[in-house]
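Hi both,

Apologies for the delay on this - the queue was longer than expected. I finally got the zinc ion-bound model through. Below you'll find the protein sequence and the ligand SMILES exactly as submitted, and right after that the structure tokens for the full complex including the ligand.
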Amino acid sequence: MFTNTVLISINDLMVFFSVYIIGLTLLGYIDTVQLLIGTEHSLWLTLSLCALVGPLYTLARIINWSRNDWSQHPIAKKLAIYCDNDNKSWIDVASNVNIEFQSLTKLQIATNTVTKVVVTDNWIIQVSSYNLDIANQTSTKLVCFKVNTYTNPSSTIEDIGSTYVKYRVCTTQPGGKNFTLRLNYNDVENFTGKVTMEIVTMPKCEFPKRLRELCIDWIKEEITKNPIYFTNEELEKCAVCINATSDIKLVKRCPDIPAVDNNPACRPCNCPPRLCIDCLVKWFITTSIDLTKPIENLVQIKSSCPHCRSTFCLTDVSYVAYDPYYNTSGSSSTDNKS
Ligand SMILES: [Zn+2]
Ligand SMILES: [Zn+2]
Ligand SMILES: [Zn+2]
């Protein structure tokens, strides 16, 4: 890519210079006859000849590329490696790519002002001003090898826009070339959700936590501050994920504060433990937290029991511990062992 870029930049310069010389000639600043046959201004002749090198070189390359139905063009060569029984020439491959490219299901990510990454059902393509990289997803692995975070003193915890992730597209297609993608972290979720190839993450790549993940950590931390609720009844599976054991019980523990404006008062919940911590936290965030706005005081946020609809706050959430010898007689079930 670098070689191509340099060559084309030199060509651009030469073409510009040629146009400049032709312009000077047309405007009469240079005497063409004197230039070509005279010896008075030999410098001009030398410069004019030099200026022709670029366009002639470009022309030669274009003629070379155009041989055999443009099969020598760098893009055609990259497509031609995917020729098979169904796709006899690079034009057939290009036509397949075009059909998928026109699909509404394709994903298009602008990675900077001149480069974009396109993911279709079968292809991954990176297009820039002077280059096109393409790989078929069936013969390709995606290796995440670097995560760079650029911190800004004024950035907030919600701001993860300055994290970039580098992926190497490694193809096993004979003749195929690997290439590197550099994506903003905000685009990574969409990107990895769309690609169908295997994704390998190198051990040293650590992704920063998203606001939702941070929020989950904060809520869990808040709940661990509350007393544990002991029970001698065996805990059932979580009613939502049906996978983890229900380990959460709502126990009204916060001070009795009447409903204020849109903030309802907490009420006791008599439901047995029915949710695991992960499902409760997901429920709490989904029903009560707007992640697009700053969270002022987590403890004051209220949600409602998914079963009986009793309002609760995080102070009213307890982890449950099963103790077959725990005796609830004579003590409220909300009490805890010390
Ligand atoms: Zn669950
Ligand atoms: Zn309830
Ligand atoms: Zn409460």
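Main takeaway for now: The helical segments are 2-26, 32-37, 42-70, 74-80, 90-101, 185-194, 211-224, 277-288.

I'll put the files on the shared drive as well.

H.
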